[in-house]
C-alpha cells in the first residue's frame, strides 16, 4: 500500500530512525559495561593475585613436613580468603585432587567450561571468563621453586543481574514520548506544504492575485518565495496576453473599418450608376493600403510570437553587423529620400560577432524602421558601430523630441506609442527588436540625446 500523505511519511521515517537508534543504544549499554567489567576485574587480579600466591606459598613453607590437607594455617587462609572475597576457593594437589576448600560439598566440575573457554594466561595465574559472568582463576603454587598444587578461585554471577530490562523499558518510554512530540512537529512541516497546495489550487481556479504567506528561511520558505515569484510571472504573462489580445483587436479593427467604409462607398456608387474611374481608383488604393497595413501588422505579430515561443532554432555564425546595416539602409533608401533625411553612418568593417543572421537582421530592421518612420522630414539619422574586446555596440539615433521617463520606460512594451508622436505605427517594432536582441544574448536600451532618441544594441562577440 502506497503512502500518499507527506505527514505520514515524515512520521513513519522518524519512527524508523528512532527505533534503530534505540536498538543501537540498548546493545551499547549491554556490551560496553560487560567489557568494562571484564577489563577492570582482570586488572584487579593482576594486582592481587601475586600477594595471594605469596601468602599461600608462605603457609606451605611454614609447615614443610605436613601435607596440604593437614596444613592448618593454609586451611584457615583458604577459608578466610573465600569468606572475604565471596568466592569458592579450593586447593588441588599435584595429582589434581582437592585437598582443601572454603565451602562444603564437592568442588564444581569446570573441566568442560575451562576446556571450551580460552583462558587468559599470566605468569601468576590462568583466567577463565565463563558463561553467565562466572570467573574461574587458577593460581599455581610453587614454594621454593617446587610445584605444590593449584589454588582455584571461582566467582559466581551475582544474584541481581544488570538492569537491562529496566533500561529497555526506559528506552521504550523515552521513544514513546519523543514519538508523541514528533506528531506536532510533523504537522507543522506539512501544514506549510498544505498551504502551498491550497494556494496552487486557488491560482488554478483563476485567483491570480493570491500569494503564499512566507514563513521562515528554510527550504519550505524558499519554496514559498519561489512559488510567489512564479505566480507573479504567471499573472504578468496572463495579463500581458490579455492586453496583447485587446491591442491586436484594436489595431486590426481600424484598417478593417476603413476597408468596410471604402467597400460601402464603392457599392453605393456602383449601385447609383456612378462609375468615375478616378474616384473608384482612390477607394481601391485606400483598400490596398489598408490591406498592406494589415499584412504588415500580422507579420509583426507572427515575428513577436515566434520570438516569444522560441520556435526557430538559432544558427550562430560569424557576422559583421556593418554589412547587415548597409543592406538594410538600401531597403530604406526610398523612405529616406522621400522625407529628405540626412544619414551619417560610421560602419567600420572587419569585426565580427557570433549571432543568428535572421534574428539580428530582424532586430536591426525594426530599429531602423522605427528611426526612419518617426524621424521628422529633413531630420537626421546616425548609425554607429563600435567594437570592444568582448562585445559589439550599435547606436542608431534619429531626430526626435525629448521623451518623458514614462515613454523611455515603456518604449519597448507591445503596442505602446508615445502621445507626442504624430507618425502612425503598430507599436511592435521596438518590442520585436528587444525580443530578438535578448534571444541573441544581448541588451538594448533607449536614451534621450541632445539631437534626439538613441537606441543602443550591445551584442556579445562570442
Number of helices: 11
Low-confidence stretches: 114-124
Shape: rod-shaped
* Number of distinct beta strands: 13
Proportion in helices:
55-70%
Number of domains: 3
Give me the secondary-structure category: alpha+beta
Summary keywords:
462 residues; alpha+beta; Helix Hairpins; 3 domains; 5-stranded mixed beta sheet; 11 helices; rod-shaped
Describe the structure.
The protein is α+β, with helices and mostly antiparallel strands. It folds into 3 domains: 6-164, Beta-Lactamase, CATH 3.30.450; 208-311, Helix Hairpins (Orthogonal Bundle), CATH 1.10.287.130; 316-460, Heat Shock Protein 90. It is 56% helix and 16% strand. It contains 11 helices and 13 strands. The chain has helices spanning 6-62, 72-85, 111-116, 164-204, 219-271, 277-309, 321-331, 333-339, 357-374, 405-410, 429-439, and strands spanning 88-92, 98-101, 120-121, 126-129, 135-141, 149-155, 316-319, 342-346, 353-356, 380-387, 391-399, 443-449, 452-460. The chain has a 6-stranded antiparallel beta sheet, with helices on one face. A hairpin with a 3-residue loop joins strand 10 and strand 11 (391-399). Helix 1 (6-62) packs antiparallel against helix 2, helix 1 (6-62) packs antiparallel against helix 4 (164-204) and helix 4 packs parallel to helix 5 (219-271). The longest helix is centred in the N-terminal third of the chain and has 57 residues, at 6-62. 19% of the residues are buried. The model is unreliable at 114-124 (pLDDT under 50).
